[in-house]
Amino acid sequence: MSDRKEKYDCSTTAVMPAYNEARRIEKTVRRTRDYVDRVLVIDDASTDETAREARKAGADVLKQSSNSGYIAAIKRGFSEADTDIVVTVDADGELPVERVPNLVQPVCTGEADMVQGHRDHIVRPSEKLLTWLASFGGPVGDSGTGLRALRTNLAQTLDLHGACICGIFSLEVLQRGGKIEEVPIRLREVEKPRGVAWQHFAQMFYVGAALFRSWVSS
């Protein structure tokens, strides 16, 4: 274990969904290992050498039998985690993993059930719209961030219905009585294509449905 790992009493697993990230995942895993006890990469049926590069960097790797998407991958990672806390990290290296100790500590001490990295900028207007919609259910913060720390036993209860995590992840934590805090983060520049996030249009339905169920049951 790297001596850069922060000294806190809770054990931690980083859950890292990955699809065709062979060019970037080795560096991301190595950086992340400095701050957690275990890196668990969920290879979403990549067609490149993602799994090999992740293992080379020291990650445990689980391979999906077919390309099932980010939510299926992250839920599998949660189900396999056996530590006190899980941390979600994207495989592309955009997220500043050096901030992980700042996310983990409040969860470890019981001050929060989940701590999110609040990004310095959000590129897609559709993501901002989803956060606005989800905020009708409470203070969801940066609801589309990929960097979070939360109690493993809470993570394993989440349904995460939808096309992506935007809006729904934070909303479900609130609906389960969880306390959310945030830590500001600055994204790294990563060269990657950014197409239209069509799944955000479908996600509005899922967030709306979750809000409706909450209002009906209250």
UniProtKB/TrEMBL annotation:
Pfam families: Glycos_transf_2
Domain (Glycosyltransferase 2-like) ranges: 14-123
CDD domains reported in the protein's UniProt record: DPM_DPG-synthase_like
Signal peptide bounds: none
UniProt-listed PANTHER family: RFBJ PROTEIN, UNDECAPRENYL-PHOSPHATE 4-DEOXY-4-FORMAMIDO-L-ARABINOSE TRANSFERASE-RELATED
Source taxon at top rank: Bacteria
InterPro entries in UniProt: Glyco_trans_2-like, Glycosyltransferase_2, Nucleotide-diphossugar_trans
Organism: Salinibacter ruber
Protein name in the entry: Glycosyltransferase involved in cell wall biosynthesis
